[in-house]
Design a protein that fits this description.
- The structure is a single chain.
- By secondary structure, this protein is mainly beta.
- Helices cover 7% and strands 53% of the residues.
- It has four helices and 40 strands.
- A hairpin with a 2-residue loop joins strand 39 and strand 40.
- This is Secreted protein.
- It holds the Pfam family DUF5719.
């Protein structure tokens, strides 16, 4: 995510302070440990949304912003329908991707891709638009006939951008075909088929590291054989020893795909954050080995709650639900902070909020497109468990929901006909934490 924060002079001060601290660590670290990070409002956010037949862009925010710039890339054509920062708005796909920049202190702008991916699996798609790809991980790509995933990399900036790609398969680390670094001109959209990275891989993982400039990344996963339907995959966070993963319910085949990029075997315990009995280990998945540098696939039993992965080595993971004509991919979830998270209401929308630790509460508020509140519900989340609620149980006619619940995790499941989509519910970019720095003996 490209952000600007107030006060505007902070960035150069931090850069200078890093040099100073490196020279005077003994005298500074003692005091630095005693000071809490400062919360700073975000002044501007930029996100990108891949375009495609049958897809639309929804744009909104937590509170009205000051201005919006929306443009189709790479031609830079203006999209006027998305340029009102005081309501929720929609527009059809344009160009290869849509880039939106919204200003306004603490506005919390967010975008979503929705629709049916005509010609690309024809499945239901509801997914957050992409923010800056500092270190993005995707697990579950296919590079075979009938399942050829597509990596979409966008440069919404004014200058060139450079990213580095790494990949892993079921047998180990993969050598990227050609150059593993990609340079994108300003406004360029690059679509890379997984088979162009490493051919004949049925299950692979890709890491995207931003080296220079502004870049975003997402994966359009589509298939017409064993994998059927489509999903726009949101990046997962970097591998960790504890990972919460979204999971879809309903009739269909389920699998968990886990990536271990390290040099030692990861032993993983897979649990569900259940609604009735809290955290419980899934049968047969109490100790799943994932060999070094590989992607492992295991079948999942029917479960209607987010998953908790506990490992002795860092891993990242994706759950896959395969129905008759569509698929849903559950990527990793991040804990909600002291700010709200947004999700659009599309077709049959169901929100699940979970806790990996203590019991707590979450508040769900419904709004119309004019940002008028329609009602709210308070959810009591059990210790180590989860609670699900339909959008219609909060209020009828809602355009979007605002979720608050510090320390909680949230996912959204969407269904329409035989189509299904699964999306992480992400904290809106209203504020960031910045450390206090010492300059000239004074803290700022």
């Amino acid at each position: 995510m490209k952000i600007q924060i107030t006060p505007r002079f902070l960035a150069p001060v931090v850069a200078a302070a890093v040099i100073v601290v490196a020279a005077v660590v003994p005298s500074v670290s003692r005091d630095a440990d005693e000071r809490s990070p400062e919360t700073l409002d975000v002044d501007a956010t930029t996100y990108t949304c891949p375009s495609g037949d049958g897809l639309s862009v929804l744009a909104g925010q937590v509170s009205p912003g000051d201005s919006v710039s929306a443009r189709a890339l790479p031609d830079d054509a203006e999209i006027a329908d998305l340029e009102d920062p005081a309501d929720w708005r929609a527009a059809g796909s344009a160009g290869e991707a849509v880039a939106v920049t919204q200003t306004g202190s603490g506005s919390g702008a967010a975008g979503f891709v929705t629709g049916n991916a005509d010609g690309s699996g024809d499945g239901l798609v509801v997914a957050p638009c992409a923010t800056r790809a500092d270190d993005d991980w995707f697990t579950g790509l296919g590079a075979v006939d009938g399942h050829d995933s597509q990596l979409v990399i966008v440069n919404p900036g004014d200058g060139p951008a450079v990213v580095r790609l790494s990949a892993w398969g079921e047998s180990g680390a993969l050598a990227i075909a050609g150059d593993d670094t990609i340079t994108l001109d300003a406004g360029e959209v690059r679509r890379v088929a997984a088979s162009d990275l490493a051919a004949a891989e049925t299950t692979m993982a890709v890491r995207v590291q931003r080296l220079r400039g502004e870049a975003t990344a997402q994966v359009l996963d589509a298939g017409s054989s064993d994998v059927r339907g489509s999903e726009l995959m949101t990046a997962s966070a970097a591998p960790a020893r504890e990972v919460v993963v979204a999971s879809a319910d309903g009739e269909g085949a389920r699998a968990l795909l886990m990536t271990n990029p390290g040099e030692e075997t990861a032993n993983v315990r897979v649990s569900a954050l259940g609604a009735d009995n809290g955290t419980y280990v899934l049968e047969g998945l109490d100790d799943v080995p994932v060999e070094p540098g590989t992607v492992a696939r295991v079948d999942l039993p029917a479960v209607d709650a987010p998953l908790l992965l506990s490992a002795d080595q860092p891993v990242t993971a994706t759950s896959r639900w395969q129905g008759e004509n569509d698929l849903a991919l559950g990527t990793s979830l991040t804990a909600l902070e002291d700010r709200g998270a947004l999700l659009p209401v599309v077709a049959d929308t169901r929100l699940t909020v979970a806790s990996t630790g203590r019991a707590g509460q979450a508040t769900v508020e419904a709004f119309d497109t004019d940002m008028n509140s329609l009602g709210e519900q308070t959810l009591d989340i059990p210790e180590g468990g989860s609670l699900a609620i339909g959008a219609g149980e909060v209020a009828d006619g809602a355009a979007y929901l605002l979720v608050t619940g510090p320390g909680m995790y949230a996912q959204a499941r969407y269904a329409e006909g035989d189509g299904i989509a699964l999306a992480p519910v992400l904290a809106a970019p209203t504020a960031v934490l910045a450390p206090h720095v010492s300059w000239g003996g004074r803290w700022h």
